[in-house]
Write a structure and sequence with these properties.
This protein has three helices and five strands, in the order E-E-H-H-E-E-H-E. The chain is an alpha+beta fold.
């Protein structure tokens, strides 16, 4: 079923803040869970990459401000496939604005390193 990409691919987007401190750790964990889910809903497994059985994990670094605007981003590590790497940056663009940083975190911005996985079942 071509409209159901979840049946064709697995893998999640995991996000870890690269800085620490500021606010309640539970609030940070909740925000990271919301951010992971938000990015995952905007990820698409490129059909051509699926047909070629291309799999991999790319590392995406980005800085997000308190309003969810991506200030800067860079692919830190390739998945090994140009199509998957391109999708990682497109996913981030589609996902903007990202969920707002909760005021309880006392952060004007966050620097994040996010592994984005593409795996076929």
């Amino acid at each position: 079923n071509s409209g159901d990409r979840d049946s064709d691919e697995t893998g999640n987007v995991a996000a870890d803040p690269s800085d620490s401190g500021g606010g309640d750790p539970g609030v940070k964990a909740d925000y990271m869970a919301v951010l992971r889910a938000w990015l995952e809903t905007h990820k698409k497994y490129p059909r051509r990459a699926q047909m070629r059985r291309q799999e991999g994990t790319a590392l995406l670094f980005f800085i997000v401000d308190e309003n969810g605007k991506v200030i800067e981003f860079k692919l830190r590590q390739s998945s090994g496939y140009a199509a998957l790497d391109h999708e990682v940056t497109e996913m981030l663009k589609r996902a903007e604005p990202l969920p707002r940083i909760p005021p309880e975190m006392q952060k004007a911005q966050l620097s994040l390193l996010v592994p984005v996985q593409f795996y076929l079942r």
